Amino acid sequence: MPNLMKSLTNAIPAAFLTAILWYFINQFATQNGVGFLERQPWPINDMYVCIVIGAVFGIVSSLIALWFVDRRRQAMEAAAGMLGLTWRDAVDQNSLRIEGRLYIFRDWEAGTNLICGEFDGVDLKIFDLEKEWTSRSQSSSGGSSNDTHNEHQTIFLFALPEGVGVPIQMLRKNALGWLLDAIGFEGIEFHTNDSFASEEVKQTLQKFNDEYRVVQGHMTEQSARMSSSSPGILKESLAQLERRISFPLLMTLANGQRWSVEVCESHLAVWEHKTRQKPNSLANCLNEVTEIYQLFVDGSSSGPQMRLEVTGAAPIKMDAGISLFAPILAFGCLGMFLAFALFVPIFFLFVEDHPWLVFIWPFFGMAIMGGCIYFGTRFMKKRRKASGGSS
């Protein structure tokens, strides 16, 4: 009954939106006082019938969405039973009893389909996290509007033994990761100076450094004040990472599913960005995330004794100096002139037979400019690393 009432209430905004759209569309191409939609066949020419159709569409779409929600709820409950775990409909953030902060839980909107219990000797919680936040966008006319964004993903949450937690984020880079590199969001990288390390080991470390952004996670207020007042504590945090992060852990992340990991003082969270795991794949996912948890807890004692060296800055920061933006501007201008030089001959040679080429120019120019900025910023990043290493 509550779901039915919720679906019925969706009919009001759907009907209101339909009325507004019908009114404004009808104003176009008016002839002899008769609007555009009024000249169309029934039922489009009847505003009230269209409003009813819009209201019915709002109710039906809401019922379909609720059906999918209920279907996932039943599937997650069944999966919990198959794994010998317990299931609850919802979870509150305060009930997780997390010490410190996890960035992934910022903008928490709702936690649903909680599965908890012991798997392979480890206590864990699994739930669907819904995040919601509002951003302000600026229009070309000078006005501004607030845009609401939603994000859903399945979270695997483990409680850590006392003294093990080191605030850190190991986030899988998305398509715009190169842009963050370009504007100076440098993070932590892992290397080895072991002369006996195989080429496979070095390639795995390079793959991890290319695909993951590692930065210092949220700390408690007391730890943050101590870190900002003492550079020695920041150095100690890097040393903690050397003791806690092992090569088998980095290899598992680099070669496995697209997992992201965040750790605070008391818990470790694993998830795949913007992905809700299928209930029938939870067993395979649990094997992977449990291995990640165990490798983190075991630290450098897991696997072969290979000491990893941590380089980079622990807190995430941005270098916003002129030395940063000048190369971006230079490569952007280079891309603009290169796009012009490449497109002009093509345009004059083929425009008579293919006049639609004029519409290709904006996309062609943007692609060339974007490519120049991309390769240019990657070149500057490698050069920056080389100069930092040589010094």
User: What structural class should be given to the helix and strand makeup?
Assistant: alpha+beta
Q: If you compute it from the alpha carbons, what radius of gyration comes out, rounded to the nearest whole angstrom?
A: 27 Å
Would you identify the regions where 5 or more consecutive residues have pLDDT less than 50?
Answer: 219-230, 316-320
User: What spatial order of strands do you see in the largest sheet?
Assistant: 1-2-3-4-9-8-5-7
Description:
Helices cover 48% and strands 22% of the residues. It has 391 residues and is of the alpha+beta class. An 8-stranded antiparallel β-sheet has the order 1-2-3-4-9-8-5-7. The chain has a two-stranded antiparallel sheet with strand order 6-10. A hairpin with a 3-residue loop joins strand 8 (259-263) and strand 9 (267-272). Helix 2 runs antiparallel to helix 3, helix 8 (247-255) runs antiparallel to helix 9 (282-298) and helix 10 packs antiparallel against helix 11.
Give a quick set of tags describing it:
single chain, 391 residues, alpha+beta, 8-stranded antiparallel β-sheet, two-stranded antiparallel sheet, 48% helix, 22% strand
Topology (SSEs and partners):
Blueprint: H1 2-9, H2 11-26, H3 47-82, E1 86-91, E2 108-119, E3 122-138, E4 144-159, E5 168-172, H4 177-182, E6 186-191, H5 199-211, E7 212-216, H6 221-229, H7 231-244, H8 247-255, E8 259-263, E9 267-272, H9 282-298, E10 309-317, H10 322-350, H11 361-390
Antiparallel strand pairs: 1-2, 2-3, 3-4, 4-9, 5-7, 5-8, 6-10, 8-9
Helix pairs in contact: 1-3, 2-3, 5-8, 6-7, 8-9, 10-11
